[in-house]
Each structure stands twice: as C-alpha cells, then as structure tokens.
C-alpha cells in the first residue's frame, strides 16, 4: 500500500505506524520516509497513524486513517 504525507510544512520528524505492529520513523526526511510503501502480511482491518513535527510549530500533528486489506 502506498502512503503519502500531504502536509505542507517543513517536517523535522516523521513517524508512520501502519497498524500491524510495524512502524517507520526518522528525522532525515527522504521521499521514502515521506511517502512509504508498506506491505501487509495478512488481510484485515488496520488503523494507521502519521505523526509529524514541523519546523516552527509547537507540538506534534497526527492523523489516523483506517486501512482495509482484502
């Protein structure tokens, strides 16, 4: 599954939680970190989460998204 970070800020930290117990995070913002591809091993319902920190912003922003793999 292709994930995309559509945020407009200058990220200083990104963390993807894919909902299946795996995650991807880092402070070196690369295209692979910003828009990762993740392969789910089993069919099912997952809740993914993107957490970012942006330059000039206080705190973190997070977005949850439901994913159904058939």
Automatic annotation (TrEMBL):
Q: Taxonomically, which superkingdom?
A: Archaea
Transmembrane residue ranges: none
Supply the InterPro entries for this chain: Ig-like_fold, PKD_dom, PKD_dom_sf
User: Where would I find the PKD domain in this sequence?
Assistant: 1-52
Protein known as: PKD domain-containing protein
Tell me the organism. Methanosarcina thermophila (strain ATCC 43570 / DSM 1825 / OCM 12 / VKM B-1830 / TM-1)
